[in-house]
């Protein structure tokens, strides 16, 4: 690969280890923290259902690395919107690379080959790699056999599913880090209408933050209903 400087990624300061509600995932977070610090496993494959916090944790890993003066890059892959695989050029020199939603490159020959070449060079440099996906590595639809095999190298971790109560606690934790509080009454309302839909909860969070800032008022159940009715 020729050297080039990759485009900068969007570092979301609110997605830190401090703002992640660990619940029964304490050990997972510890492994990720160690690898992001350059002293843990060289490769981690993190998987779990959509909305459980994989993107949050990969962002947190990059923040952790930056705080320790390590070079890190977060690369999110989107279904049907893959960037050119040239974005991988130069990433083998980074101390930590976090690739989110690796399943979306499956079946794309150019991406699979570029990822395979990057993987080999990055590993030869003894750098850290964290990958996320919605399924275990052996269920990935990657066609390049040698690349699929490499997905199983290193440590494979599964994010444990949260209970309804833990989902609201996680939402409350994130809200607190954004600067507003979730009352028990609001929590009960969300538990009834949103608890089993984590992606919907996370999509709701920035809208509530903006609404409370604009209105300069606390989030109550009537205000929450008002916000939702206005959308």
TrEMBL record:
User: Where does the signal sequence lie?
Assistant: none
Kindly give the InterPro entries that the UniProt entry links to this protein: DnaA_dom, Hda, Hda_lid, P-loop_NTPase
What processes does the entry annotate via GO biological process terms?
DNA replication initiation; negative regulation of DNA-templated DNA replication initiation
Chromosomal replication initiator protein DnaA ATPAse domain location: 91-157
Where's the Hda lid domain? Answer: 164-228
Can you name this protein? DnaA regulatory inactivator Hda
């Amino acid at each position: 690969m020729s050297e080039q400087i990759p485009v900068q990624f969007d570092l979301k300061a609110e997605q830190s280890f401090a703002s992640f509600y660990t619940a029964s995932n304490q050990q997972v977070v510890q492994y990720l923290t160690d690898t992001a610090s350059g002293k843990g496993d060289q490769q981690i494959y993190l998987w779990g259902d959509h909305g459980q916090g994989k993107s949050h944790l990969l962002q947190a890993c990059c923040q952790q690395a930056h705080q320790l003066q390590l070079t890190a890059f977060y690369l999110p892959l989107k279904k049907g919107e893959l960037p050119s695989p040239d974005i991988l050029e130069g990433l083998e020199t980074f101390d930590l690379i976090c690739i989110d939603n690796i399943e979306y490159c499956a079946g794309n020959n150019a991406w699979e080959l570029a990822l395979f070449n990057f993987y080999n060079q990055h590993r030869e440099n003894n750098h850290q790699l964290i990958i996320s996906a919605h399924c275990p590595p052996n269920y990935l639809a990657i066609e390049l056999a040698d690349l699929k095999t490499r997905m199983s190298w290193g440590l494979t971790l599964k994010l444990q599913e949260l209970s309804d109560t833990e989902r609201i606690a996680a939402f409350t934790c994130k809200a607190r880090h954004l600067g507003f509080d979730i009352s028990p009454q609001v929590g009960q309302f969300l538990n009834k209408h949103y608890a089993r839909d984590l992606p919907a909860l996370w999509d709701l969070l920035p809208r509530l933050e903006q609404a409370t800032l604009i209105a300069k008022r606390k989030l109550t159940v009537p205000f929450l209903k008002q916000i939702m009715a206005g959308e």
